[in-house]
Design brief:
This protein has 258 residues and is α/β, with parallel strands linked by helices. Helices cover 39% and strands 26% of the residues. It has a single domain, classed as P-loop containing nucleotide triphosphate hydrolases (Rossmann fold, 3-Layer(aba) Sandwich), CATH 3.40.50. Helix 4 packs across helix 5 and helix 5 crosses helix 6.
Length: 258
């Protein structure tokens, strides 16, 4: 086996020429729609927005990276492609191992089920067997700190309670790849610190981490490498300190991103 193939085999994530676009439909008055239709200009009512444009990179086993950029630069869209929540329009996303993490508050939660029932549902979605979930159940509940609400339907949970339960399930699935969006901003400060401490443990255990955050001090602490996105394009992929310097320079210059 060559050295090159060994490197590829160690990759947990491979993103190859990934492109994602959305169709934006513009609202028009009924009169204008009728006029445009008769004029053969109906297509003008929609516009293609390129959220990600030909993105390529890989993440090795045990590596921790940050996706950086201004709001709308494509960070969260890229994280959703990696998680499998949405698919790329072009290119390929290859994942090796179990993926877990937090992208949206309450994602995967069934509002009419209790916290207890959602632990088993989310655990199954994340690839755990019923036996594994039962083995981890007490730890999940204890970490969430919402024991008294386990038999309450989650539609009555606050966003902070959603976060506690979702994060607790995710970190107890023994993931190979852990994804974190800005979602941690929802929780209160003590629980945020608890989550960050657990993320640090995952890193020390050699898990692959991909973090999206505007907290540059935090990402410099937890990651070694940064990918800077601007308007859906990759500006750089390099050491985290250099990535942060570039992002701060872009912010200082006030460059617009969408």
């Amino acid at each position: 086996m060559t050295a090159a193939s060994t490197s590829v085999d160690l990759d947990r994530i491979r993103v190859s020429h990934a492109t994602k676009h959305f169709t934006l439909r513009h609202t028009r008055a009924f009169k204008e729609i009728v006029i445009r239709t008769f004029q053969g200009r109906r297509r003008d009512l929609s516009e293609r927005f390129v959220a990600l444009d030909n993105i390529t990179f890989s993440v090795a086993e045990g590596e921790a990276i940050a996706l950086l950029g201004r709001n709308g630069s494509g960070k969260s869209t890229l994280l959703k492609l990696i998680s499998g929540v949405m698919g790329a329009d072009d290119g390929k996303i290859a994942i090796r191992g179990r993926v877990a993490g937090l992208i949206d508050v309450g994602a995967g939660m069934h509002l009419d089920l209790t916290g207890r029932e959602n632990i088993f549902l989310n655990g199954a979605i994340l690839g755990m067997s019923e036996r594994q979930i039962k083995e981890q159940y007490d730890k999940i509940v204890a970490f969430s700190e919402i024991e008294e609400f386990m038999d309450t339907e989650v539609k009555f949970y606050s966003s902070g309670m959603f976060l506690r339960l979702a994060f607790s399930v995710a970190v107890h699935t023994d993931p190979d790849i852990f994804l974190v969006d800005e979602i941690l901003a929802v929780g209160d400060e003590p629980f945020q610190k608890k989550c960050l401490a657990r993320i640090q443990e995952l890193r020390q255990e050699g898990k692959c981490l991909v973090i999206v955050s505007h907290d540059l001090d935090m990402v410099s602490q937890f990651t070694d490498r940064g990918i800077v996105l601007r308007k859906g394009q990759m500006m750089m992929d390099g050491p985290i300190d250099e990535a942060i310097t570039l992002l701060r320079d872009l912010n200082t210059r006030g460059e617009e991103s969408r």
